[in-house]
Write a structure and sequence with these properties.
Blueprint (H helix, E strand, L loop, with lengths): L1 H17 L5 E3 L19 E3 L10 E7 L2 E7 L8 E4 L10 E9 L6 E8 L9 E2 L4 E3 L5 E7 L6 E7 L7 E11 L16 E4 L5 E5 L6 E5 L5 E5 L5 E3 L6 E8 L5 E8 L1
Keywords: Signal
Organism: Chryseobacterium piperi
Protein name: Secretion system C-terminal sorting domain-containing protein
């Protein structure tokens, strides 16, 4: 009887550990604070670093500011070498959810980039499929970024950090939320209270925008994550006549530098 109970407990533990998550809502406050290789894996989050090219070596840390904890990516002596933060395994995305997170550069650090994507294996970053272009983190204040997540067979969310200006870059991330997306056709506004609204015109040749301030730049990506169009509005309109039918994801950069994400369907 005792052996049966022990076997049952072990089996339950294994199932719990490997369970795929339908959503994520991680603020990292339940993590143990620390620096270096002893920090991860933790709470099913894992990391991959580049090989060290000198002293100090790259690190992925859990640091705190008051009662708030967050992840800190430190590039060490590396430059232009990515560090990866990998989520717990999620249920294969069905295209009905959005990923949002806060990110910044540490005060005193050179700017770096963060790019979010999906992978099929937590140990093989060659399977990385980006959800959008890399975003430069130039501000030392946390800003929120949001990306629609397309349907995919990949089941891990990955954050790719790169110090592109200089070595010893320190980038930070917090409040990762993967959940049901907002209404199609309305951008996930980050800083402004004036939502940027748009619609595909009747001819399916352009996006018509309605906003008090025209976006600074538009980037459009296919469902596979490839950039297929980029540019500015022309009389509150963005040309999509060259795009094939399908689902597309759009990055909208405001005049203040805020990047928001939305998606649309070209029929």
């Amino acid at each position: 009887m005792n052996l049966k109970l022990l076997f049952g407990a072990l089996l339950f533990s294994a199932i719990t550990t490997n369970a795929q998550l339908a959503t994520l809502n991680e603020n990292f406050n339940g993590f143990t604070e620390g620096q270096g290789s002893t920090v991860f894996p933790q709470n099913q989050w894992t990391t991959i670093f580049p090989a060290a090219v000198g002293n100090p070596a790259p690190m992925m840390n859990i640091v705190a500011s008051g009662s708030d904890k967050f992840v800190q990516s430190y590039s060490g002596a590396n430059q232009n070498s990515p560090q990866y933060l990998i989520s717990p395994q999620i249920v294969a995305p069905a295209g009905d959810k959005t990923l949002s997170f806060k990110a910044r550069r540490n005060t005193g650090s050179a700017p770096g980039t963060v790019q979010v994507g999906l992978v099929s294996s937590p140990t093989d970053m060659s399977t990385f499929i980006p959800l959008g272009s890399a975003t430069t983190l130039g501000s030392s204040t946390f800003q929120t970024y949001s990306f629609p997540v397309p349907a995919s067979n990949s089941s891990y969310i990955v954050f790719k950090f790169v110090g592109v200006v200089a070595p010893h870059t320190v980038l930070e991330i917090d409040d990762v939320v993967y959940n049901v997306s907002s209404t199609l056709g309305v951008s996930n506004q980050v800083k402004s209270t004036d939502a940027i609204r748009f619609a595909v015109n009747a001819e399916n040749t352009a996006l018509d925008f309605i906003s008090k301030k025209a976006p600074k730049n538009i980037q459009i990506y296919s469902a596979s994550g490839q950039k297929v169009a980029e540019g500015k509005l022309n009389n509150q309109r963005f040309d999509i006549s060259q795009l094939q039918t399908g689902i597309y994801y759009m990055g909208i950069e405001s005049t203040e530098g805020t990047i928001t994400q939305s998606k649309f369907i070209k029929k």
